[in-house]
Design a protein that fits this description.
Blueprint: E1 3-6, E2 9-12, E3 20-23, H1 29-40, E4 44-49, E5 64-67, H2 74-88, E6 90-93, H3 97-102, H4 107-110
Parallel strand pairs: 3-4, 3-6, 4-5
Antiparallel strand pairs: 1-2
Length: about 120
């Protein structure tokens, strides 16, 4: 079976519904491409953005859509992130630069999920 290694997590290329992947900053064009690619390979994609108009959240390949606190509201954003990861069993996060800056003080906590 072919697989992709994301840090210490090995995820099959043709994933089952058990593989939930978070794509933050779904308002960027790069995130839209990631959402489409992951969704077309069977991953359960969580498109997330603080913008209610985020294009990625309207993608047919996004199984879950999340409106998040803004990155500059760090306490609220980290609380949302912890809850979401735990509740949905997120196995990987496809980070953007903005996401990495937002979690910089909590990087170790989430580093095992970053691809």
């Amino acid at each position: 079976m072919n697989s992709v290694n994301i840090m210490e997590t090995s995820i099959p290329l043709n994933a089952s519904e058990d593989f939930h992947v978070l794509v933050p900053q779904a308002d960027s064009l790069g995130a839209v491409a990631v959402i489409r690619s992951l969704g077309s390979h069977g991953y359960k994609v969580h498109a997330a953005s603080s913008s209610p108009q985020a294009l990625g959240c309207y993608s047919n390949f996004a199984n879950f859509r999340h409106q998040t606190p803004a990155y500059n509201k760090t306490v609220e954003y980290i609380a949302w992130l912890r809850t979401t990861v735990k509740h949905y069993g997120i196995v990987a996060i496809i980070p953007s630069e903005g996401f990495l800056l937002a979690i910089k003080d909590y990087f170790e906590e989430f580093s095992n999920l970053l691809s």
